[in-house]
UniProtKB/TrEMBL annotation:
Listed PANTHER family: PREFOLDIN SUBUNIT 5 (PTHR12674:SF2)
Name this polypeptide is given: Prefoldin, alpha subunit
InterPro entries: PFD_alpha_archaea (IPR011599), Prefoldin (IPR009053), Prefoldin_subunit_alpha (IPR004127)
Superkingdom in the source lineage: Eukaryota
Pfam families, per database record: Prefoldin
Lineage of producing organism: Eukaryota, Amoebozoa, Discosea, Longamoebia, Centramoebida
Positions in coiled-coil regions: 19-46
Molecular function terms, GO-annotated: unfolded protein binding
UniProt keyword terms in alphabetical order: Chaperone, Coiled coil
Similarity section: Belongs to the prefoldin subunit alpha family.
Cellular component terms (Gene Ontology): cytoplasm; prefoldin complex
Example of a GO biological process term: RNA polymerase I assembly
Record flagged with keyword Metal-binding: no
SUPFAM superfamilies: Prefoldin
Length: 151
């Protein structure tokens, strides 16, 4: 574990930093860990939305054609509707763009996106774990330095 501030590419051992420098470094790592945790939570939320979409697609069968449903207009406002074409669905591909696909194509799209979200979540989880380990190392050095200071 080294701290920034050395010559180009030369890491500085954290044990050689002052308490003030360690405190600043600790604050930086805490902020980065919070940002990573927030990003991870957003990815988990997106993953859950894709799982919900998979469930909805699985429920969309030829037998459901003509069935009455409640269609969401907002997260808390629904309107009665009737399924008239279960052979095509609209997929939100981002920034207000939608494409029409068959349920099978939509399932493949959702599976790809879900895999991507899970892969990125794993990477973020690893980065967060590393940040937290580095933070613990900084706190440990800070505690040692404070214990060594004369009372």
């Amino acid at each position: 574990m080294a701290a920034p501030g050395g010559q180009q590419g030369q890491p500085i051992p954290i044990t050689s930093l002052s308490l003030e420098q360690l405190s600043n470094l600790k604050q930086q790592f805490e902020e980065e860990a919070q940002t990573l945790a927030a990003s991870l939570q957003k990815l988990k939320t997106a993953g859950q939305r894709f799982l919900d979409s998979k469930d909805s697609l699985a429920a969309l069968t030829p037998e459901t054609n003509g069935r009455e449903v409640l269609a969401p207009l907002t997260s808390s406002l629904y309107v009665k509707g009737k399924l008239t074409n279960v052979e095509a669905v609209m997929i939100d591909i981002g920034t207000g763009y939608y494409i029409e696909r068959t349920p099978q194509q939509a399932q493949e799209y959702v599976d790809r996106k879900l895999g991507l979200v899970q892969e990125n979540a794993e990477k973020l989880q690893q980065a967060l774990l590393t940040k937290r380990k580095n933070l613990e190392a900084i706190i440990g050095v800070m505690q040692e330095k404070m214990a060594q200071q004369p009372q």
